[in-house]
Design brief:
254 residues, five-stranded mixed β-sheet
Length: 254
């Protein structure tokens, strides 16, 4: 029995002794979810992750220029698919979650948390709205979807002079939650964070108003076992449970 236990401990020690680190480029929507997933991953595998957060479009450009990331967790499928097509990432692109767009307002805002955007339209006319925060539609998928939702509501042209554009969705959320803007079209995964729920409120924007927010991940570097382990771990039940906690849905197969 002691010999068996000794062999098991030796195998565990050997596995953890060979543990490595994966460098991850992650969409800013994932900040709070990955803060929980990363230590779970380390406990389960012995590997660690170093995560950089930002806009998916900026990460796409950085990876094209040779940035040394091992894994790319995008807020859409398009940017990782481009990397695969350009032979800068390993296929396939795996859809790990589907996000939701919400209208977030600070508690002191004169606006309602109205996902239909009807109060936003009214506030635009009656002067209650001076600033609306969104992420940069050129590089941030949630900014692209915010633009689509505003276009669906017939507000895009008239609201542009009042837009405060964040470099990524995290910055746009900060603008809205701090009161620098009266409202923001942001990610549900950030709106439900403990840091925001005490002083903001939100409501989901209808899914049908914009293209789906299917979020895709892809391996950039092939030789790092820690990267493959992290890519695989995000598909597991414990990781998916954390993503669900932060408002992500399982992606619809396409």
């Amino acid at each position: 029995m002691f010999k068996a236990i000794g062999c098991t401990l030796l195998l565990l020690w050997t596995g953890f002794a060979q543990a490595g680190t994966a460098t991850v480029a992650a969409a800013a929507t994932l900040r709070y979810a990955l803060d929980e997933i990363a230590p779970q991953f380390r406990q389960s595998t012995g590997h660690t992750v170093k995560v950089a957060y930002g806009s998916s479009g900026n990460f796409y450009s950085q990876i094209k220029q040779g940035a040394p990331f091992d894994v790319f967790l995008s807020a859409d499928m398009a940017f990782p698919q481009k990397l695969v097509a350009e032979k800068l990432a390993r296929p396939p692109v795996h859809a790990y979650a589907e996000g939701r767009l919400v209208l977030l307002v600070p508690n002191k805002s004169p606006l309602k948390a109205d996902g239909s955007l009807q109060d936003l339209a009214a506030a635009l006319k009656d002067g209650r709205l001076s600033k609306l925060a969104i992420a940069n539609p050129s590089v941030a998928p949630y900014g692209m979807r915010a633009r689509e939702a505003l276009m669906h509501a017939g507000l895009w042209e008239s609201i542009q002079p009042r837009l405060v554009v964040g470099e990524n969705i995290s910055q746009a959320t900060q603008f809205a939650s701090s009161g620098a803007a009266q409202a923001g079209l942001v990610a549900l995964s950030l709106a439900v964070s403990p840091q925001l729920v005490s002083h903001t409120r939100f409501e989901r924007v209808p899914r049908q108003w914009h293209q789906p927010l299917r979020q895709g991940m892809v391996l950039i570097q092939a030789a790092n076992p820690a990267a493959q382990a992290f890519y695989d771990y995000l598909k597991t039940a414990p990781a998916q449970a954390v993503l669900k906690k932060y408002g992500y849905d399982e992606p619809v197969a396409q």
